[in-house]
Amino acid sequence: MAWAIENPAALGEALLRHMVLVGLALLISLAIALPLGIWSARRPRAYTAVLLATGLLYTVPALALFALLVPFMGLGTAPAVTAIVLYSLLVLTRNVAVGLQTLPGEVLEAADGMGYGRWRRLLAIELPLAAPVIVAGVRLTVVTQVSVATVGAFIGAGGLGDLIFQGITQDIGEKVLAGAVAASALAVLADEALRRLERRLAASQGGEP
Amino acid sequence: MPDVIGWIWSHTALVGRTAQEHAILSAVALLLVLATSLPLGFGLARTGRPATLVVAAANTLRTVPSLALLVIMLPILGTGFLPSVVALTLYGLPAVLLNTIVGLREVDADVVEAARGQGLSEAQILRDVTIPLALPVILAGIRTAAVQIVSAATLAVFIGGGGLGELISSGLALMDMAQLTAGALLVALFAIATELTLGTLQRSFARRFGAPA
Q1: Which residues contact A103 (CB under 8 A, 6 or more apart)?
Q2: Which residues are in the ABC transmembrane type-1 domain (chain B) (predicted)?
Q3: Does A131 reach chain B within 8 Å, measured CB to CB?
Q4: What's the CATH code of the domain at B10?
């Protein structure tokens, strides 16, 4: 770990850059997946089509997805974030839709009976109740994004993958390891943090009638 | 759109070699995953604490980024086929192991009890009741692992393991868009074909064994 100790600034910068990439990709993918999941949840045909399309994207290996965007978008942050977003849509959209689909019918009827409009019911009842399933999707997505972003360094996105690729080119094994260990730690920590959030959300709902 | 077809047509030997490397790398890793995680899963499913520990370890292993797992092998095993296969095996292992343990555990205890009451031996129960009922979940794990391995094998090129990732890697280095796109499309097709083949296999198995008698 000598490299990491001698180059804390470079490591910190790569880590920060990695988190910015993931944060940006997560915001954009939520902005797409939330409406898409809500819209398709009660439309079986649309839901099947959405799962098929996003599932196809999810099956494409990360390096291939990055490579496919290069002829159209060049190198850098834009194609990298685009690829990370495309990769995230299946899990996020599916969990939003499943979260809404599995709500008990009585709850929805009760809300209708209390005079809730469609939007108010969605925002005040359905989404909060679906939150644990949605957060479970966010957890899986963030872990995937941390992993995919590592490969993004290949097309010039920077981040912890940069340390890995530079380390390989410069033949500095410690730099490679620093990048790999930091990326793994980031994934494990994000997973654990979101797992706790998920559990807390589920527990807070368990107490409700 | 770069001339992908033209590029593949004029580089059939290179495409053939890298595709073969990719297939061998993936197949060996998947076989090693099956050879380790199936017996481990069967052995652990009925245990308490050991299973909990292994499940926690597998869950952590599952979060490690594929590129990180591959390059962590460099200082231990160097470059080439062996470190690539070891990394890919570790990468695919959690999916099969976790699904085997979960699949076996979810088999209804009442069903097993009923079979025991009918005088079936433990071996018969395992063969005729437990395994058929757990099979859909185990097969789903194998399918996930296979697709993950084919996908991550693309990154083996970075530790000298070869495979179709080589086309992508040298395509970008040379800024040869035809080669880059050809590599990406071939890898994508490989992964999608694996997913579809194993998905079909999984469904036909589920129909044959999983259907209620």
Answers
A1: A126, A129, A130
A2: 19-198
A3: no
A4: 1.10.3720.10
Residues of B in contact with A173 (CB under 8 A): 74-75
How many structural domains are present in chain B? 1
Residue with tokens 């909060």: A128
B62 CA: distance to closest CA in chain A (Å)? 9
Q: Do A71 and B171 touch (CB under 8 A)?
A: no
Closest CA to B78 of B161, B162, B20: B161
What is the CATH number assigned to the segment(s) A2-121+133-200? 1.10.3720.10
- Nearby residues of B172 by Cβ (< 8 Å), 6 or more positions away: A67, A70, A154, A155, B180
What is the distance between the alpha carbons of residues B96 and B104, in angstroms, rounded to a whole number? 12
Taking residue B83's Cβ as centre, other Cβ atoms within 10 Å add up to 22
Which phi and psi angles does A43 have, rounded to 5°? -125, 90
Counting one residue from chain A and one from chain B, the pairs whose CB atoms sit within 8 A come to: 114
> Tokens representing A22?
């993931």
Return the residue matching tokens 């995919």.
Answer: A148
Cβ B181–A68 below 8 Å, yes or no?
A: yes
The domain of B146 spans 4-210
Cα–Cα dist B6/A136, whole Å:
45
**213 residues of chain B, pLDDT tens digit each:** 788 999 999 999 999 999 999 999 999 999 999 999 999 999 998 888 888 999 999 999 999 999 999 999 998 999 999 999 999 999 999 999 999 999 998 888 888 889 888 888 888 888 888 888 898 899 999 999 999 999 999 999 999 999 999 999 999 999 999 999 999 999 999 999 999 999 998 888 777 765 543
Residue with tokens 């192991």: B97
Cβ(B205)–Cβ(B136) below 8 Å: yes
Instruction: Give the one of A63, A143, A155 whose C-beta lies nearest to B155's C-beta.
Output: A63
Facing A180 at nearest CB: one of B71, B168, B185: B71
Phi and psi for B162 in degrees, rounded to 5?
A: 70, -155
Residue A203 and residue A68: Cα distance in Å, rounded?
A: 43
Structure tokens at A107: 């709850």
The minimum CA-CA distance between A67 and chain B, rounded to whole Å, is 6
A interface mutation test: which of B1, B26, B60, B67 has the most A CBs within 10 A?
B67
Q: How far apart are CA A17 and CA A10, in angstroms?
A: 10
